[in-house]
Specification:
Layout: E1 5-10, H1 14-23, E2 29-34, H2 37-46, E3 51-55, H3 63-73, E4 78-83, H4 88-96, E5 101-104, H5 109-138, H6 148-160, E6 167-171, H7 177-186, E7 195-199, H8 205-213, H9 230-233, E8 238-242, H10 249-261, E9 263-264, E10 273-274, E11 278-283, H11 287-292, H12 298-304, E12 307-311, H13 321-336, E13 342-343, H14 345-353, H15 359-373, E14 378-379, H16 386-389, H17 395-401, H18 403-410, H19 421-435, H20 440-447, H21 451-466
Parallel strand pairs: 1-2, 1-3, 3-4, 4-5, 6-11, 6-12, 7-8, 8-11, 13-14
Antiparallel strand pairs: 9-10
Length: 467
């Protein structure tokens, strides 16, 4: 366990409370104790509790009332009910209210440790899910990943976005520089103002300055009227200059002046115009090499690189590939009206072995293609575009490197969005039983359940399978 967890022990018997403490000796736990239901509710409300063990028979509010209150305050709280009574009705009621498990006294220490470990694992899964949701909500689903490289980018965005500093985004084509620029703008104080995007590589040199800075009538052949440039259109907001390494020397000089003084003149005019624009720039070139070759101004480079964000190629952050692929699959599953849920093993293995020269953009297009042609609920290797599946990859060495990622994906269970907690639990039990060949004792061990807890759930599983 990487962080300390807090356990609330609720029992009016001091010896019983000591038994719980003894069972968890040597683990990274802090303990809080309550002798009554009222005291327990007060402690739970005042502290950040990870796991609760609660006796059914308490002075004042009984354990069922405490459980009901805890679940109302925090629906994902992990609560283990303890009782000296072998009362089926009480156990059913506790499980219906959301208890993680129900153990009878005298407590077997080994069994309690297993259930506590499962409670902590469930807590960690909940925290990971909540972090995922925060990430999706914060970054609008555009930026996803759990690699150290992506975590660093999230941190830089959070720190840099509220400022007005220029940001230089570097990285190969398709790594997501456009999405990062979008997120910086969305999280800035300028988010209610326009974000204007300019692809410097797509504009001829003769038109780039006019496009950026505007022109007046008669400035050149075809200039029949005054026209605002992108800087004026972005006034008060953000201007994103993509592929800035393609900018001409004249445009670089004009840009430097705007960054220094906030002033520009339209092409063909001597009238100075003041603008308030935050500049974000991106390139897939090595600008320092361009400086050495006298193709890019060094003073402009340092003006642009107040904050730099480098987006690593996808092949260098392979642990993000399953997350990104699953996100794209959900999107295109909805768009195609299919119920696609997962990728076959060999697809994930291929994804982790393939070098992705087109980076995230290529992965997205591959998943979109697969979603169009997939049948059933899983994407197979045959659904992927031929142009990538026939490309030779160094699969042996990469497969060895990625074995841990593949194993983690394969051993995961996909629960469709909209499933109830009960349906999710029954699906996990069903698939675990399949994995261990129907051995109920082994399934209980893998799931961290007592045998009695597993057997209580089997009738519902049978009913589910029949329906």
């Amino acid at each position: 366990m990487s962080i300390r967890r807090t356990i609330l022990i609720i029992d009016d018997d001091a010896d019983s409370r000591e038994v719980v403490r003894e069972a968890l000796e040597g683990k990274q736990f802090d303990f809080l104790e309550a002798k009554t239901g009222e005291e327990a509710i007060e402690l739970f409300t005042a502290h950040d509790i990870d796991v609760v063990t609660c006796d059914i028979m308490l002075p004042g509010a009984d354990g069922i009332e405490v459980l009901r209150h805890i679940k109302e305050v925090k629906s994902d709280a992990q609560v283990i009910m303890l009782t000296g009574l072998n009362a089926v009705d009480t156990a059913v009621e506790a499980m219906r209210l959301g208890a993680l498990d129900y153990l009878t006294k005298p407590i077997r220490l080994k069994e309690l440790r297993v259930v506590i470990d499962r409670a902590i694992q469930q807590k960690e899964l909940t925290e990971e899910r909540d972090e995922w949701r925060r990430q999706v909500a914060r970054y609008s689903g555009r930026l996803l990943g759990k690699s150290p490289a992506m975590k660093r980018i999230f941190h830089i965005i959070e720190q840099a976005a509220p400022t007005r500093s220029t940001v230089l985004l570097t990285g190969e084509t398709g790594t997501g520089k456009d999405q990062v620029a979008q997120e910086i703008h969305e999280q800035s104080r300028r988010s209610n103002k326009p974000l204007i995007k300019v692809d410097c590589a797509s504009l001829p040199e003769s038109l780039l300055e006019s496009e950026l800075f505007g022109h007046v009538r008669g400035a050149f052949t075809g200039a029949f009227k005054d026209r605002k440039g992108r800087f004026e259109l972005a006034d008060g907001g953000t201007l994103f200059l993509n592929e800035i390494g393609e900018m001409s020397a004249g445009a670089q000089q004009r840009l430097l002046r705007i960054l220094q003084d906030g002033e520009l003149e339209r092409v063909g005019s001597n009238t100075t115009i003041h603008v308030d624009v935050r500049v974000l720039a991106a390139t897939n070139k090595d600008l320092q090499q361009c400086i050495a070759e006298n193709k890019f101004r060094e003073d402009l480079y340092y003006r642009l690189r107040v904050v730099q964000i480098h987006l690593a190629p996808l092949r260098e952050r392979r642990e993000d590939i399953p997350i990104l692929a699953q996100s794209f699959l959900e999107r295109y599953s909805e768009e195609t009206g299919k119920e696609l849920q997962q990728f076959d093993h060999d697809v994930i293995e291929f994804f982790l072995s393939y070098p992705w020269p087109g980076n995230v953009r290529e992965l997205q297009h591959a998943v979109e293609h697969a979603a169009i042609f997939a049948q059933g609920r899983a994407v197979t290797l045959h659904n992927l575009p031929e142009e990538i599946t026939r490309m030779p990859v160094s699969s042996v060495s990469r497969a060895q490197d990625s074995a841990q990622i593949i194993e983690k994906y394969e051993n995961s269970i996909v629960i469709p969005i909209g499933s109830t907690l009960e349906d999710a639990e029954l699906e996990i039990i069903r698939l675990t039983l399949e994995k261990v060949g129907g051995n109920k004792e082994e399934a209980a061990r893998v799931l961290g359940l007592s045998r009695s807890s597993l057997y209580r759930r089997l009738p519902k599983l049978a009913q589910n399978d029949e329906s």
